[in-house]
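Before relying on records like the one below, remember that each one covers exactly one chain. Contacts with other chains, cofactors or solvent are not represented anywhere in the record.
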Amino acid sequence: MNIAVNARLLLNHRMEGVARYCWEITQCMIRNYPEHHFFLFFDRAYDASFHIAENMTCISLFPQARHPILWKWWFDFSLPNAFRKHNIDVFFSGDGFMSLRTSVPTLLVSHDIAYLHFPSSMKKGHLKYYQKFVPIFHRKAQHIIAVSHSTKDDILKHFGLEPKKITVAYNALPSTIPLGLNPKNKSYFLYLGSIHPRKNIVNLLLAFDIFVQRLLDEKLSPPSFIIAGRQAFGNEKVKSTFSTMRHRSFVEFKGPVSEEEKWTLLAEATALCYISKWEGFGIPILEAMHAKTPVLTSSEGAQKEVAGDAALVADPHNIDSIAENMYVIFTDEKQRSILIEKGKERVKAFNWEKSAKIIFEELTKLAVS
């Protein structure tokens, strides 16, 4: 079987959520099914580190697809030509996009449909593309993988598909996680991820201001708050909110961090505060649990599903709820210990090998149908 893989987002210097999912699943399949050949299609020169086995071929296709017009060109013209040239049997597209001009059956991964819930958080050109084509992609794909039951339910609600068309295959911890991490020796809250309106940084900052004032009123020393991640789109309100914070001296915007620095930050944090308005999954939750760091997360989207009973949960729209939970997780050492122990067990429920097996079985069904 010749399996095409959408490798458009695989950039070794920026392996965030969707790209991480695509690569972890793909490398598991390449290694576990050596009798099949995998063609990884990139939209630019690829890093040699992605070539990990003999049963794979890496191919760069023009153009670099980072704009709606170029998305259309790459998926609807470049890919179909390459599929014919290499006798592709089935297409695995892990980033939610697909070609509308090929008869090759497609297994589409849907991470979330957040554009429906938060249209103002996207660039207008990108939003128009999503509004027009994402429903079409979900209808045309021969089968869909959702990264959580929350995402599956959201798709069913908005696109009216049959439940049997969607299979859940979870995210998991990165395969390169360190085995030994430093013990806690610092006092700070941590946010880890891109800086983007959907990530709810504004309410985190407002809640943190309330929380710090409460500690000061009680003559307690507040922790700092480290926000680590790249600046994405539409963060004017984050900047204005920060500038008006009473206790902004306790906040540090660290910017993008390396993998090594990420794990150090996680291991030494008092708690991870990851309270997005909506997530299709939320990998930092699992990463914090692996690092034996308590988690405060959101009651919205898949975050509660991923965390189970191993995290404190706050209403992402209610800054008083967030502030109260910050107070609990900071002042209650027994509660932190309980969350750490539950988190160590919770991460065991998520496994790339299991998810890759689910996906490969669906690809096989499509190839022979």
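The radius of gyration is 21 Å.
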